[in-house]
UniProtKB/TrEMBL annotation:
CDD domains: SWIB-MDM2_like (cd10567). GO terms for cellular component: RNA polymerase I upstream activating factor complex. It is found in: Nucleus. This is Putative transcription regulator SWI/SNF-BAF60b family. Residues 212-223 have a biased composition (Basic and acidic residues). Coiled coil: none annotated. It comes from Lupinus albus.
Length: 324
DNA sequence: GTCCGGCATAGCGAGTCAGT
DNA sequence: ACTGACTCGCTATGCCGGAC
C-alpha cells in the first residue's frame, strides 16, 4: 500500500519535471499509477487537491520572487515610469477591447485548476491546424490555431472595411473571402462554420490521407452500427436499458420537487430537469457557475446550502430507487 | 435620457466532471 | 462507454438593467 506522503512526493517531483502546458490531472494520475503499479482511479479527488496545492505553493513562491525583483527594479528606476507599472498595464490592456466582455469572462473562468488553464491552451481551439490553400493565401501561413485564424480574419475585415454598414454582423466578401466562403456576403456567426471546411487537423503529414482514413473509419462504424441495430432495437423494445437510460423510481421528495406528477424517470431526464430548475431560478453562483446556491426547495431536497454542479448526480443518488 | 457594463448570441473540437 | 453541462478563445452586436 502506497502512503499519501509517497504519492505527494512523487506527484510534486513529476509536476516539477513536467511541461505544465500539456500536463493534466489525468496525466499525473496515470504517471503515478505506472510508477507505483496501482489503480488510483478512486483517488482522483485527492490527486486533484494535491495538484491544486502544488500550483498554489508554486504560485506563491513565484509571487514572492517577483516581489523581490520588483523592489529591486523600482529602486533602480526611480523618477520614471517603472517597468513594473508597464507590465501591469500590458496585462490589463492586452489588446483593444473590441469585445466588451469576452476577455474578462474568460479571465474569470481561467482562475481554476492550473492544469485546466494550461491544457486548453494547447488543445481544442488552440491546437495548431493545417489551412486550406485559399485560407493559407489570406493568412500568409500554412498552419495556425483556429482562434488565431478568426482573430486575423477579423483584422483583415476591419482593415478592408468589409462589414455591412446596415448590419455590421454581415461581412461583405471581397475576392479572397469569396474564394474561401463561396458567397458574396456571410453572417459573422456562419463564418466559423464556413471556416471549419478550411481548417484541417494537423495530426498527419498527409491531411488528405487523414480525411480518407476518418471517412473509412466512419463507414466502418456505420456498418458496425447497422449490424448491431437489430439487437439494440430488440433490446429497446424489451425495455432493457442500463446506466443513464435506466428508468428509475423517484423518491417522494424528488417527485414532489419536480412537481410533474411522474414517479419514474431516467437519470438523464432528472438531471436535465434539475439544470432547467437551477437555470430558471438563477441558482448558479455568478463568480463560479459550477457552484449551485440552493434555494429553500433545493435545500429541503439535498439538505445542503450549496453544491458543485458536478456532484448533482451524487446528491440525486439517494432519491433514485432502481426498478427491476 | 445617456452611458456603461454584463450577458447572450453562433460556431468550431477536445476535454473535464461523478456516477453507472 | 456513456450521460448533460460546462470550459477554453475569438469576434461584433443587441438587449437589458443600473447608475448618474
Amino acid at each position: 500500500m502506497v502512503s499519501e506522503s509517497e504519492l505527494i512526493g512523487r506527484l510534486r517531483e513529476f509536476l516539477r519535471s513536467s511541461d505544465l502546458n500539456t500536463t493534466t490531472t489525468t496525466t499525473v494520475r496515470r504517471q503515478l499509477e505506472s510508477d507505483f503499479g496501482i489503480d488510483l482511479s478512486d483517488r482522483k479527488a485527492f490527486i486533484r487537491e494535491q495538484v491544486d496545492l502544488f500550483l498554489q505553493t508554486e504560485h506563491q513562491q513565484e509571487e514572492e520572487e517577483e516581489e523581490g525583483e520588483d523592489a529591486f527594479k523600482s529602486e533602480q528606476s526611480q523618477g520614471s515610469n517603472s517597468k513594473v507599472e508597464e507590465d501591469v498595464d500590458d496585462e490589463e490592456e492586452e489588446k483593444p477591447n473590441h469585445s466588451r466582455n469576452g476577455k474578462k469572462k474568460n479571465k474569470e473562468r481561467s482562475n481554476k485548476l492550473g492544469d485546466e488553464v494550461v491544457k486548453k491552451r494547447s488543445g481544442g481551439f488552440c491546437k495548431l491546424c493545417s489551412l486550406s490553400p485559399q485560407l493559407q493565401e489570406l493568412m500568409g501561413a500554412p498552419e495556425m490555431a483556429r482562434t488565431e485564424v478568426v482573430k486575423q480574419l477579423w483584422a483583415y475585415i476591419r482593415e478592408k472595411d468589409l462589414q455591412d454598414p446596415e448590419n455590421r454582423r454581415n461581412i461583405i466578401c471581397d475576392e479572397p473571402l469569396r474564394a474561401i466562403f463561396c458567397v458574396n456576403s456571410i453572417n459573422m456567426f456562419q463564418m466559423n462554420k464556413a471556416l471549419s471546411k478550411h481548417i484541417w487537423p494537423l495530426d498527419s503529414d498527409d491531411v488528405v490521407q487523414v480525411k480518407a482514413e476518418s471517412k473509412e473509419k466512419k463507414k466502418k462504424q456505420e456498418r458496425e452500427e447497422d449490424s448491431d441495430e437489430p439487437k439494440r432495437k430488440e433490446k429497446r423494445q424489451k425495455g432493457g436499458k442500463s446506466g443513464f437510460l435506466a428508468p428509475l423510481k423517484l423518491s417522494d421528495a424528488l417527485a414532489n420537487f419536480l412537481g410533474t406528477g411522474e414517479s419514474e424517470l431516467t437519470r438523464a431526464e432528472v438531471i436535465k430537469k434539475m439544470w432547467d430548475y437551477i437555470k430558471g431560478n438563477n441558482l448558479q453562483d455568478p463568480s463560479d457557475k459550477r457552484k449551485i446556491l440552493c434555494d429553500e426547495k433545493l435545500k429541503e431536497l439535498f439538505d445542503v446550502d450549496t453544491f458543485n454542479g458536478f456532484t448533482v448526480t451524487k446528491l440525486l443518488a439517494p432519491h433514485f430507487i432502481k426498478t427491476s
